C-alpha cells in the first residue's frame, strides 16, 4: 500500500528535511524540527504524489487516502490530547499548501478548521474566552466561504464578508475589528453563513470532516489556479511538481497575556550580524503582526516577559542554524508560556548580509569556503559595487525611467555633451540630460557623473555605453520634456534649468530634485575575503572591458586580470582628435587619409601608453577600429560648415560625403575589418600606435602585453590579409627598437559565419574573443537599438526566457560559441579563447563560458567581482 | 627515363585527346587529329610537366629534355622531308603555348623559327618566291625581338619595329605592308637586327637551335607573366597546372594561288544550323584574315576554287564532329592544293545555337539526351528568356549603368511612381527614372516597362525588386543628373524631358535615346524539347516567386510547378489599399487596426483568388507580412498632411507615429513574425483572406493548395504561437464552409538561430523554406543595401570567390542550410524543404540545393527554365 500521509510532531515523525520533493518545503522542515526534538504542533503532510494523482485522475484521491488521513488524525489527537470534532475538547486544524519551492501567496490556506456552533460553545467553555472563540469561528466561516466555497465579490463590488463586517462596526460605532464584542462576532458568524446560503444556495458545512476535506481539495485545486500557473511559468517551475498539504493542530498566541506570537531571523538579515533579530506581540495572532494595529516589540524584550520560553526559543534558533548551517527565518507562537515552533526556513537577506554571514560561518567552522562561495548569488553583488543614495524619504521625485546602469549620481544639469566636458574640467559635477545620446556625446558622457535620457530602452546607446563605463544612467524617462533651445526641462509640474542640481538613481530609475547624499562603495573585509576564496577556486580568468587608464585602474582594483576589450573608437572622439578623424574620413585619397592619420597616431600612442602602464604585467586586448565611419562625421549643418572652413573645402562637398556614408543598416554595413580592408592605412596607424606605445613603456620598465584584435571577421581571407599586415608593421617596429616585446594577433568572433568557419579562421588567429553582443544580434536577427519595440513583450510572453542581450542564449547563440571554440581549437590547440560581450559579466553566461572551456571572460569594471564569483561557482557546480 | 616530348603527325603519334592535362588542349587535339589520319603538319609537344619542373627548379629544364627534343626534331624532319637549319632544304617551326584550358592571348607565340640570312637565301631558291621568304624572315626577327628578347617600346614611344616599317613605307611611297618589295623586306631584316643590337646590346641569334630554345623558354616564362597570372586568378585556374609547348612544322597558305588559309565552324555558331560556317583567303596567311586587308570569302566558295581540298576539309569536319560529338572550331591551311589541319577545338557559340546543336545531335544519334542536357550552361539561357534589342548600331548612348535585371525595354520617361501608374493605365509604355527607388515606388515599378536609377548597385532596392518582377532594370547610371522639380534629366550633353522616349538594356546596362526596336521572347521547339528532357532527369522541384496572377501565369508557362514565395506586402501598396494599410498602422489600438484591416481583407482575398486560379492544382506558398511597418507610412510632409486630413487627426500625430517607427537597422528590427506576435490581428486577417480565397475558388472547381508561411522565425515559441493561431482561424473557416480543403503551415528559415534550432522548429512546421537572402545577410553580417561600398572590392580582391547574394556561400551559409535541413527532418521526416531566396535561380546554388536533398527551389519566373536545367545537371553530376 502506498504511503500518502506523513506524520510530524506526533509520537513518531515520518519525514525529514531531505524529503522536500515529496513533502514540500514547509512539511519537510516541520518534520525536521520535530525530529530535532523541537516543539511543533502535531500534524501531518499529505504528499505531493496525491496532488499528481489528483490531476491525473480527474480530480480524485487515491482510495487509500481517506483511511490514512483518519489514522493520522487519531495520532495527532493522541499527541495534542484533544479531539477533532469533539465539542468537549475540540482540536482545530490549519490546512496549508507547501510546494517544493516557496510560491508565496499563490495558493490557499484555511485556518481554524473544526468549528461549528456546538464545538465553538464547547471551546468557550474550555478556554473561558468567548470573544477569542467567536473570532476564530468568524474567521473560519469567512475564509472557508471565500477559499473553499468560492464566494467572491461580483464586478466592482466590495467583498461581501467585509461589507457585513463594516456594517457591524458602523452599527456598533467602532472603528477596529478587535473592538467588536463576542456577541457581535457571534452575530457575524450567522450573518456570514446566511450570506453564503443566499449567494451560493449552499450551507456552510457544519461537519468538521467535511470542512477538512473541503480545505484539502481547495489547496490541491489552487495549484492549478490562474495565479499559480502564471507564477510557475514565469519562474520556470514545472507544473507536474504538485503541492503537498499540511494539516496541523492550531496553536494560539492570543489566549491571554501568557501567550505571544512572533517572527525572527537567527542573524540580522540586513547587516548579517550574528544576533537574533525579530519582533513579537503579546496576546496576539500572527495576522495581527502583519495588520500593524499594534506595534510589535523587539525580540530581545521577550526575555524579560517570558524568560523560559525565550531561552527555549534561543536554543531552538541555535540548534536550527547549527543544523541547517544557514540563517533561519522562524515563526513561533507561545501558548500559555509554552513555545510552539510553526515554521523555519532559510532567511532572505541583503547581499551585504549574505557576505558577512557566509564569511562568519566559515570562521565559526559551520561551513567551508567552497560552501561560502556557493551561497552568494553573484548578481546580488551588483549593488554592493555601486554608490547608493542615503535617502531621507522626502526627496522630490521628478520622474521615473529605466534603471539602465546602476549607481547613484548627483550633479548640475547640462543639456549638451560639450558643456558637460567644459563644466567637468572646471571641477563641476554634472548630469548630462539628453533626449537620447549618440556616439558624438561620448566625451560628455565620460565627463558627467551620470546620464539621463528621455527616450530609449535598456539597450539604447546611452544605456549600453553607460554600463560599459560603469556610469550611472537612467534611460527613457518619458515624463521629461526637454527644450534644448531654452536649456531647460519640465516634468510633473517642475521646471529644471541648466545648472540646477538633480540626483539620479541608476538602480531604481528614479530622478530626484536637488542634491541627495550618496554613499560611496567600500569593500568590507568579508567581501575581500570571499573574493580571495573565489579566486582560489575558479579556473576561468576574468578580464575587463576598459578604454581609458582610469577604467583600467578601477578594474584592476576590482581584480581584473587584464583587459579583454579596449575599444579604440572612443579615443577617436576625445578633444581635438575628432577633427583629425573627420579630416581623415573626408579625404578623397589615401594620401590625404595618411596625412590625417599621422596627426592621430601620437595621440593614440599616448592613450595606449597610459593603459599599458595601468595594466603593467597583464595582457591588454586592443580592438582595431570598429564602427562605421558615419558615426564620426558631423551631422549638423553648423558643424559641417565649421568643418568646411577648417578644411578649406565647400560645405556641399562635406555634406555629400556625409550623405554617402549613411547606411540603411549600419550594424551590417561598412565597419570593422571591412574598413581595414578598404582603408588599410587606418589599421596600419593603429598597430603602429599600439606597438610604439608598448615599446616606449617597455623601455621605462613596464611589462606591456599587447593583444591586437581584428573585429568583425567573417571570411578567412580578411583575417589572413589583416593579420599579415599587422605582423609586418609590428615586426618591423620591434626589430628597429631592439626591445624584447611579444604580442598576439587574434580576432573577434561575432559574425555567425566566423563561428562556422572557426577551424580555418584559427589558422590565422592566436586568440578568439567572442563578441556576443553582435553575435546575438546576427544570430537572432535582432538590432539591439531597435529591439525595444518588441523584446520586452517577448520576455513578458515567455517567447524568450530572458533578454538575450543580458544573458547569453545558450540554446542558439551558445551553439555557435561552443562550435567556434571547439573548431578553433581543432586547428590550433593552444588557441586562447575569451568573451568580451556584455555577457562576460552575467553570472549565467559566465557559467556557460566556463563549461565551454574558455580561458577568460571580460566585462565592465564593476562587474569583475560578479564574474569572479560566478566563475568560482561554475567550478563548484561541475 | 621520364618522357617529356610527345610527337604528333610523324610516323607515330604519341598523344591523344585524353591527354589534355599533360599536353594542353592544343597539343592533345593535334595528336588526336593525327591519330584520326588527318593531315597535320608534324611536330611535337613538350609536356606541362616540363613547365612545372621549370618553375620548381629555378627556371631550368630536366636534363633529359634536350636529347628528347633533338630526337623529336629528327622525326619531324623525316616526315616533312626537310631539315631544321639546313639551307638547302630548310624546315621552319612555330612555337605555341597550350594549357589545359584555353587562355586566349595570355601567352606567347613565335612563328617561322629556323631562318637566318643563309637559310633564307636557300628557302628563296627552293620556293622561288623571294618576297614571301623575306617577309617570313622579317616577321621572325620582329616577333623574336619582341617576345623572346624583350625589345619593347619605351614610355609612350611607338613600337620601334613598327617605326622602322613606317619609315620604309614612307620612303617607298606605299601604304600597305604587302606593297613593299622583297628588297625592301630584306633591308628591313637588317634594320631590325641593328635596332636589336643598338637597344639591347645583343645580336639576334642566327643559330636556329638557339632560336628554338629561346622561344621555348619564352613560352614557359609567359605562363607566369602578369597578364597570365591575373587571368588565372580571375578564372580560378590553378597556377600549378603549367602550360605545354607545341613545336610544329610551318605550313604556308601564302605561297601562291594554289594556297589558302581559313577558319570554320562545323555548324553555325550563331544559330546552330547544321552547315559548315566559315571563311578563307586565297594566297594568304592566318594573320591576314585577322588584319582585314582583304575581305575573306565564305567557306562554301572554296569548293569551286579548290574542290579536292574542300572535299577533304568537309570530310575532316565530319570526322571530327563524329569523333568529338561537339561543334568544332577549325583552322586550316592549304599549301599547293594540299590541306593541312592546324587546330581543332570545341566551338564557342550562342546559347540559342547550343540548344539547337544539342537537340539536333540527339536527333542525329550523336549524343544521348543526358549529354544534351549536360552541354547547355544554365546561365547561358538567361538572355534567351528576356526580350532583346535589334540594334542598328546608330543608337545614341545616353549613359551606361549596371545591368541590374536583364531584358530590353523602351518607353516614355516618367520621374514619379504614381505617374508611371497613371500613364500605364492610359496604355502608355513608360520607363520609370529615379535617383533610387523605395518600397513606395513598387506600384510604379510594376506599371513601368523598365526601371532606370542614377544610384545604387546590383543589390539596390531597384535591382532586387526588378529581378524579382522579371522587369528590365539599369541601376546606378551615374551620368544621369535628374531634376525632379523640372521633370527632366541631363546626361552627356543631352536633355531628356518627361514624355521623351528612351530604351534601356538590362543585359548590358546601356541607356539609349529614342525607341529601339525590341524582339520578344519566343521559345524554339528545340528549347522546349530540351526542357522536357531536363524535367525527365531532375528530381528537384522548381517553383517560382510570384506576387501577382500575371507573374504566376508567366512562370507557369516557364514550367514552374507551384509558387514558392508569394509576398503579400507588394499587395499592400497597390492602388487605394495603401491608405487602409496606413490607417491600420497609425491606429493606436487593436480596435482601430481591426477596423482598417477589415477594409484590406476583401482586397487581399481577391489577390489570392487570382493567384490560386492561375496555379490551379499547384501549391502556392504565401508569406505573411514581412517588412517593417515604417516602409508603408508616408515620409513626405505633403502625403502626411493628406493622410491627416483623411483620418481627421493632427499632422503632428502622424509625424510622431512615423518617427516612432523609424529604426536604426530596419533589417534587424520589428518585422516578420515579430509583427505577427505584437499585432496578431494582421496575420489573422491575412490567414482569413488566404483561406476564404481558397474556399471560394474551390467552390468554383479550382484546386487550391495554400501553404501559409510565417517569416523571420528565430524562436520556437514564435512559430508555435503563430501557427496555432493560423490553424485556428483556418480550421474554423474551412469547417464553416463545408468545403474539402487542405493546407500547410510552415516557416521560412532565414535567421541563423532558426537553422540551429531546426529540430525544435520543425515540430511546429510542415515545411521549411530557406530565405537565403536574409540568411546570407545575417550569417555574413552584410546588409545587402549597404554592401555595395565594399562587396565589389571583396570579390575583386578574391576575399570572396563570388557575390554571396548571387551564388549561395556553401562554405558558410551552406552549413546552416544543410544543418537546418538535416535537423528539421530529424524531428519531422516528411518535412517539405525548399529555398526561396534569389539563389533559387542560380545554377550553382540549385546544384547545392539538390545535394542537400531539398524538395524544390523557387526563383523568379524568368529563371525557372535555368533552374530546371541546373536541377537536371545536378542529377547527372551525382
Q: Beta-sheet strand percentage of chain A?
A: 15-25%
The shape of chain A is elongated
Work out the oligomeric state of the chains in this entry: homodimer
- What's the Cα radius of gyration of chain A? 34 Å
Percent range for helical residues of chain A?
Answer: 40-55%
Number of helices of chain A: 34
Strand order of the largest sheet of chain A: 14-24-23-16-17-18-19-15
Quickly give the structural class of chain A. Answer: alpha/beta
Model regions low in confidence, pLDDT < 50 over at least 5 residues of chain A: none
Give average pLDDT of chain A, whole number. 92
How far apart, in Å, are the first and last alpha carbons of chain A? Answer: 39 Å
Q: Which pair of chains has the greatest number of interface residues, and how are they split between the two chains?
A: A-B, 48 and 48 residues
Secondary structure tally: strands of chain A: 33
Overview of the molecule:
The structure is a homodimer of 878-residue chains. Chain A is of the alpha/beta class. Helices cover 45% and strands 17% of the residues of chain A. Chain A has 34 helices and 33 strands. In chain A, helix 5 (130-147) packs parallel to helix 7 (182-200), helix 19 (549-557) packs parallel to helix 22 and helix 21 packs antiparallel against helix 22 (590-614). The longest helix of chain A is centred in the C-terminal third of the chain and has 25 residues, at 590-614. The mean pLDDT of chain A is 92. Chains A and B meet through helix 25, helix 27, helix 28, helix 30 and helix 32 of A and helix 25, helix 27, helix 28, helix 30 and helix 32 of B.
